[in-house]
Amino acid sequence: MILKTMIKFHGVHVDVEKIKESIKIILKSNVYYQFRTTVYPKYVSAQNVERIAKYLKQVGAKEYMLQNYFDYDNKVKPYSPKELEEMAEKCKVYIPTTIAGII
Asked: What angle do CA 10, 20, 42 make, to 5 degrees?
């Protein structure tokens, strides 16, 4: 299974099936869409984004974007541009992937 059915994120249970259903609705619509993941190092790993990219390809998405987390409070160090690029390259195996938010 690429994506678990239930995950615990920041102390909250998230029903991944609802996310998958939303993705299906978006894909069936005739509106422009863009699937993005904010890569917050404390919770989102390179393996996570690669699994998401694989899933998005599997369901027929056309593009994927990674956006870096910006630490306003200087509490969590964001991924470096090099780390983001490495993540994007792994995702590109499955789906065209771009990066937003590199400062």
From this structure: 25
pLDDT of 81-101, one tens digit each? Answer: 999 999 999 999 999 999 996
Q: How far apart are CA 13 and CA 21, in angstroms?
A: 17
Q: Rounded to an integer, what distance in angstroms lies between the CA atom of residue 45 and that of residue 41?
A: 6
Tokens 């994120």 -> residue: 9
Tokens found for residue 75: 């509490």
CB distance 36 to 23 below 8 Å? no
- Residues 20 and 88: their CA atoms lie apart, in Å, by 21
Q: Which two tokens stand for residue 21?
A: 């259903």
Domain locations in the chain as residue ranges: 6-10+32-100
Alpha-carbon separation of residue 54 from 13, 72, 97 (angstroms): 23, 31, 11
Does the pTM of the predicted model rise above 0.85? no
